[in-house]
Amino acid sequence: MTYHVNFNFIWKYFDKLSWGLVLSLELAVACIALGILIGLAGALLYVDGPRRLRPLVTAYVEFIRNVPLLLLVYLVFYGVPSVGGFKYGPTESFIITLSVYAGAYLIEVFRSGLDAVPRGLIDAGKAIGLTPFQRLLYIRLPTMFRIVLPSLSNTFVSLFKDTSVASVIAVPELTYGAQWINFSTFRFVEVYAVVTPMYLVTGYTILFLLRRLEHRYGVGR
Amino acid sequence: MDLVIQSLPFVTKGLAITLQVSALVVLLSLLAGVLLGVALTYGPWLVRLLVRAYSDIIRGIPVLILIFAVYYGLPALKVNLSNLTAAVAALTMFTTAQVIETTRGAIQSIHHGQMEAGKAIGLGFGQRMLYVIFPQAVRRFLPPWINSVTDAVKGSALVSLVGVVDLMLAIQQVIGRVYEPMPLYLLGAAIYFSINYSLSSLSRRLEQRFAYVRE
Questions:
Q1: Distance between alpha carbon A177 and the CA centroid of its chain, in Å?
Q2: What kind and span of H or E run contains A155?
Q3: Of the candidates A66, A182, A189, which has its C-beta nearest B197's C-beta?
Q4: Which residues of chain B are within 8 Å of residue A82 when distances are taken between CB atoms?
Q5: For labelling alongside A48, which of A182, B46, B102, B201 has CA 20 to 30 A away?
């Protein structure tokens, strides 16, 4: 018995894949945005906040970084509603999970970014009489963002890849679309021959665009 | 709490599989990754091109897709792997790509004068690697490598999706029977956490041990 390669089914159901890819991208964008908010809050709390709260931030970061994403996805989707007495859809639940996940990684990124802001800039801000809040808003944050831009791009691309895990709770993103076609047509080889390049091309295109952005706004080496 | 205790023997079996899968992946990818990493740094251009392509492609696709592609895709090409073998193969492919990059970075961080000095005193390539480059590169290699090891342990949870009864799937199965998700997920999280946290603490200790300047 030989396997006959036949791409017809893939093209027939291609909308599952194209819309899946769009949803994957949307998830990644939503999660990087929320992740940046969490990351900023956490990093500022760690650096500028009261010292007693530091272990809290550390605990959050270490917990998330040392537990598999898959388990977190299950925990938030099946575990939390079972104790909390409320329900949400798989997509909302996944966005919460991946944002919290991204937030933990971004706290580390922003923390080292804030540390890397040159001392002289902050002193200059003090010298011209900026308040601590003004120094944060006009000096530390803009400089930090320019410094961490490369890490942000990498985080974004890896979040895009991580959205594939959403398929396990039936969020109809790209991997879910692939599995759906698989189990309706059993065209495994063709599906992966199409889906893998879709991830690759999208991922590297994003990275290429972000690298150009870094070139424009990043801190030159 | 009773529930957690009752489920422990079952969960422990899963944990054994998780540890087994992780250990296999880490060992195999260390061997392949260091070898290919050296090839990427010193090989002829064709070899470098191939290794570079392998590494960039593998790191560009989600691990989950890789696992599914190996498990569901290969049988059509007449390669039948059990789910455990397929999962280990896919995870190894992925971790190998990371080890390749770590190795390349570690080797390139060593000043090329070291290599030239080795040549000057008449050492062969293997000797230069073994006695000159590797001992110095180890301290640059270890921290990111241990990161990959924890990634491999975390990634091993994905093998549950092709039906390998690892820690993750064992927990899912217990939940399927008792309908008490939260305590069991927390138990699972605690187990994964203690494995990975001890690995990363080990990494910090090793970093200090291998640093030039000890504090």
A1: 20
A2: helix A141-162
A3: A66
A4: 180-182
A5: B201
